[in-house]
């Protein structure tokens, strides 16, 4: 026979056991939750990063890009899609391991390449996800980098050894390279930046069904076209030159070039001259780029589409436009 005290003791023990069991289950669930939550947060963060926000500068209605005026060439780059093209750009700094790591974190970029007489080499504004705090510490502990103040009183980092000026923020990076020893160029351009030429936004949204990777325009293109068409004793009154590069397949690329003139009459005449030149063009990479297909007149402009380009032909094209 169980005494009343023993029965009460058993009830208390049972209740205590259930209480401990409940506490244990709660602690187990809490422990699992504490272990899982950081991974869930990380997963959510990574998921958000896999779909980068397109910067306003890349939207069709935008009229300016945040770069200095006076460059010879301006480029807009979808970095994730254009890595194989960027490897062929004639910019040695892009081959630096630290720059490559920064490129891995970049989604979009705009680039300006300046004439040698300006003293400035290039300027870049990029958007992505960057370790701004770690970069600041790295600059601080590296004797090659010194903090400078811009004309507006904003700070940036400058290395005389490399000629680079940089500002690293969490979502943006600005960089400028100088050709002059001890003379830095401010990495952040004065607002509103460079105005996009009329007709360029329409052009960069026209493609051959392939995603555009690199597109840009050349300032003062007449002299460059005259050099390419050196065998023809004629002036080329080109107002604007637009370039669009596509990745067709692995190690295969395609270029579309638009030449804009004052009027449709000039465009028609230049299309006829280029067609004539195609009959006498030598079998070389330049011909593959400019004379593979007949130019197509589009009002006051003509469009030239290259044949499929291999890596060496792509390198030649980039050198013609960027050097």
Provide a brief overview of the structure.
With 323 residues, the protein is of the alpha+beta class. The protein has helices at residues 4-49, 79-86, 97-104, 132-141, 200-204, 221-228, 264-278, 285-290, 311-322, and strands at residues 64-65, 73-78, 106-113, 120-128, 145-149, 155-159, 164-168, 172-178, 194-195, 212-218, 240-249, 252-260, 296-298, 301-305.
Provide an overview of this structure:
The protein is an alpha+beta fold. The protein has helices at 4-49, 79-86, 97-104, 132-141, 200-204, 221-228, 264-278, 285-290, 311-322, and strands at residues 64-65, 73-78, 106-113, 120-128, 145-149, 155-159, 164-168, 172-178, 194-195, 212-218, 240-249, 252-260, 296-298, 301-305. The longest helix is centred in the N-terminal third of the chain and has 46 residues, at 4-49. The chain folds into three domains: 1-51; 56-178, no CATH class; 197-322, no CATH class. It has a twelve-stranded antiparallel sheet with strand order 5-6-7-8-4-3-2-10-11-12-14-13. Strands 1-9 form a two-stranded antiparallel ribbon. The protein starts with a helix and ends with a helix. The protein contains nine helices and 14 strands. The chain is elongated, with a radius of gyration of 29 Å.
Primary descriptors:
single chain; 323 residues; alpha+beta; 12-stranded antiparallel beta sheet; two-stranded antiparallel ribbon; 9 helices
Q: Judging from the principal axes of the Cα atoms, what is the shape?
A: elongated
Number of domains: 3
State the total count of DSSP E strands. 14
> Number of helix segments?
9
Radius of gyration: 29 Å
Strand content bin: 25-35%
- pLDDT < 50 stretches: 1-51
Strand order of the largest sheet: 5-6-7-8-4-3-2-10-11-12-14-13
The topology string of helices and strands comes to HEEHHEEHEEEEEHEHEEHHEEH
Roughly what is the average pLDDT, rounded to an integer?
79
Give the proportion of residues in helices. Answer: 25-40%
Reported for the largest beta sheet, the result is:
12 strands, antiparallel
